[in-house]
Amino acid sequence: MRQRGIALVIALATVLVVSGIGTLLFLRTLGEIRHSGQDQGIVQTLMLARGAANAGGTFLSTTARDRLSVIVRATASTTDCWAYGGSNNCQTGGQPDPVAVAQALATVASQFQTQVDNYLCPNGAPRNLSPSGLSATVTLRVHFTPSACGQSLPPNTRLAEGRFVEGAPRGVGSGASQTYALPFVMVAEASLGPYRRNIVLQGEYRFTVGRASFARWALFTNVHTLPNGTDVWFTDRTLFDGPVHTNSHFRFYRQPWFAGEVTSAGCTNPGNSSCSGQTRAGAYFYGVNGGNLVLASNMQPSASAPSYRNAYGTHAPQFTAGVDWSAPFIPLPQNNQEQKEAAQAAGLYFQRTITSLRLYRQCVNETTGLEVPCSLPLPVGVTKYQYIEVTYCANRNCRDTNTETYRYGEDRKLYQKVGQGQNASWQVVQRQGSEVYFNGVIFTDGDIQSLKGPDRTDPNDPNTAGPALAEFAQITVAASGTIQIAGDLKYETPPCSGVPTRNPDGTVTPATCDNLTARNVLGVYSQDGDVLIDKSAPRDLHIHASLMSAKGVVAVENYNSISEKGSVYLIGGIIEKYYGAFGTFNPQTGQNSTGYGRAFTYDRRFLQGVAPPFFPTTGQDQVIGVTVFSYGQREQVY
User: Fold this and answer.
1) SS3 content of the chain, % helix, strand, coil (to 5)
2) CB atoms within 10 A of CB 636
3) What pLDDT digit, counting tens, does each position of 2-53 carry?
4) E strand or H helix at 391, and its extent?
5) Is residue 308 located within the same domain as residue 353?
6) Looking at the chain, which terminus has fewer C-beta neighbours within 10 angstroms, N or C?
7) Which one, of 6, 157, 22, 141, lies nearest residue 631 by Cα?
């Protein structure tokens, strides 16, 4: 009995020990499960916060940049040697006064903060950046001032003053640019259930200021009428997906669509270099106010979204990126001296009229010297070249002509073809004992009677025309006189495809511009003449370029008498003194009657500061580049 009692006690003790061990193991397992859940929640919120910080970097490089550029155009000095910082230390190697720079950039930061908050915290409430389907909250705010989205700076953080980084004062070299920095603090927060993660990143938002190129506009007019004074009306057929500006007044019929900012200086009598008449902010709406100007202050229901209904329909232009009826007057260039000097220095300069200018891309087998297809990837020993073939008048009456052919590769070293047939060779162009590296400018003191790329193999199919510009080519064709475009001018790598399209429900589907890293770019610029699409140009003409006439129009030759020829498919923009006509159409059917229709797509690279080489610039500044520098970050768990 005693032994059985001892055995029972041992058994009970063993059960208790095993039970205790089991309980401990169970409790430990529960703790590990709980700890694992905590780790998962922390990791998830960390990843979400980091994702928000990455989105913030993208925002600063894209949307924020566009909004800063608007502020810079309004705040940067157009007369001082420094965009910000006054006119002190304008000598070579000088720098602006740091105190003056800090004061000026404080104003920029304040205005910029408002724009950033409007995007990240519309109506005062922060956007939830959490992926759809996930019950998390992810927010982002960026401080350029102590308060962002209604919240103060995080503890133990501060903002330094804005500063000048580098650059040359204006007047020291052509197109001097200057870089400034706005310190910022970015706060990305994520919460998922009871878990929160907070990432605070500090850095500098550096932006480079330079003179704005006229290429930045999808459409620019000095006087928004035809040269003969005929009124020009934007209608339902009007679809512009880039910035549009006039120094005078716009006229609207029904619902034209604008995806870029619309600006008007409101000058009643625009001169060549300034407003010669009164400045009256407003626009014309068909059949409204007795056909007279409607002042911006009287627009109904508001100046930002005017809308009028009468017997002719509803006149309500769609300003999807905003409108400014009191924008600054922007004079067109008064001469082309800069382009001429650039051509003489490291471009191609011709004193007399060019009868034919042909641009094309070709690939060459360097061993055989034979032209071969430009298939990708290029075979070993094959080089891609940009060709320029110029025929020009050899004397004043142009009874004789000379033809010269040039080419250059990606290194821009310029070669000229010497000799004919089997005896032809390519020799490096030299000036003043140095090899010429082509700067992209082709200039003549006369006219250009025919500008085009490769001919189509099928005259009715624009897809059969080869590229006029190689993927690396950047060219400005400039003339004192008139330039006539006689054929397709296409990029090897276009930045955009398609055109803005009006849908049956009245909405607009924009073009696709998803190749904004494309390098090829073309400018066509006449100072004293017109840029005309030749009456002999083929049907459905494709032009990839920014087209500009400082004292005339960009138009179609004999637009109202030639046969109907489809549309001009333009990727780029048009800058002109007067509005140029392309064709006529039947108002009952909406179909073209003569000339060409317009199928325009804005090259959105121009908003990023891209422009053809030595293309004319305005007296305004714009942001031509931004860089986001991070000095470090810290993370917090709640």
Assistant:
1) 20, 40, 40
2) 13
3) 444 444 444 444 444 444 444 444 444 434 434 444 567 778 888 888 888 8
4) strand 382-393
5) no
6) N
7) 157
